[in-house]
Hints:
It is a single chain. The chain is an alpha+beta fold. Among the domains are: 3-87, CATH 2.40.50.100; 219-413, 2-Layer Sandwich (Chloramphenicol Acetyltransferase). The chain is built from ten helices and 19 strands. The longest helix is centred in the last third of the chain and has 16 residues, at 303-318. The protein starts with a strand and ends in a 6-residue tail after the last helix.
Amino acid sequence: MPQVAITMPQLGESIAEATIVKFLVQPGDTVEVDQEVIEVETNKATMGVTTLCGGVITQFQVEAGTSYAVGTQLGLIEATEEEIEATGVTPLGAAPEAEEEVPELIEKTLSHGDNPAIAQQSQMDLTDSIAIEPSVHGLPVPVGTKGASYLSPRMRARMDELGLRAADISAIQGSGAGGRVTIEDLEEFLVSIEDWPKSKASPMRLAVADAMRRSWTRPLATVGMPVVLDKVLAHRKEQNPKPGLTLYILRAFALALKEDPTSAGYLIGENIVHPKAFDIGVAVQVPDGVVVPVIRNADSKTVPQLSAEYAELVDKARERKLGKETFEKGIATVTNFGTFGLVSGTPIPLPNETLILGLGAGVKKPVWSDEANAFVPVTTCELVLTFDHRVVDGGGAGMLLQKVRDYLQQPWML
């Protein structure tokens, strides 16, 4: 009978590998199409690998506790001809429908008559373009990133081997020309820290580090504004169950962005591409990092409606049970660092987002009241907005915060 491969799927845009957690079926078991057969863990969540067709599991070719790259063959299913025809899958050993034209294209691209200079340059360009592969071990290193100073090919090769970027060696005092860090400087530094205490960075920590590196390639700026929370807190007390303060901020943020969608746009060439939907992410602290599940269409859901969805997302996030669809295509993020007692901060937006709104801890302050002709105690917090300065200016960011503040003074409208 024909054999069909079970392969490691692409579980997210930036996910290059996943770790086998456990097998949900055993060799000899009969499975159906789209049945989960292996549980895997990525740097964001625990997910299931499903079958492309029905049949009998003949073998698994991987081990639990080991990480495998996207596309790796994990096991085999024995399927009938009828099942293969019904599902449209390609069994192992089947001839491809059409020949790949890539080799011929490469050969033609590298053939430039008798001009060796053009041929050599084209070969270099093509090699650079086809040699790019995701890093699935060590630190994730974005391909093509250049440091502020010259790095020799030998140095780059060693850094790639270690999973380092130019920013990671900035603390090393260079002995080369113009203060350049040489391969000898790097090796000496590595020897000097050999006996330092170390701990293994988790996949989650590496994913956060990679996202922040990519985010910091843009010109980011942060502005802040104090907001009086008394009306929000009074409204919250009247609700049952009481929604979290983050939900009021998220809802006000979504409505403010709906009024000014350009603020959450992307600069593509000479155009600013506006968001199609107001899907807002919420930063959730987990033991080894932060995950950002996305609440869809936050502008069209009231705070009470958001409450149940938010609670479910937070619980699943902390249990690492969120699917990849809950992380994708958010336009901005809300983060409540006030829960840690922090009154202010400078949060960094995700690489695919232009904005992140941070909420500081509430603080009692005396504020002058014209009505009472005296100072009265009020609860305020700091709202901080970090933004891509290519898309939004300080004035635009300030006006966006003012809109959020105004919405928070009418919590019954949220």
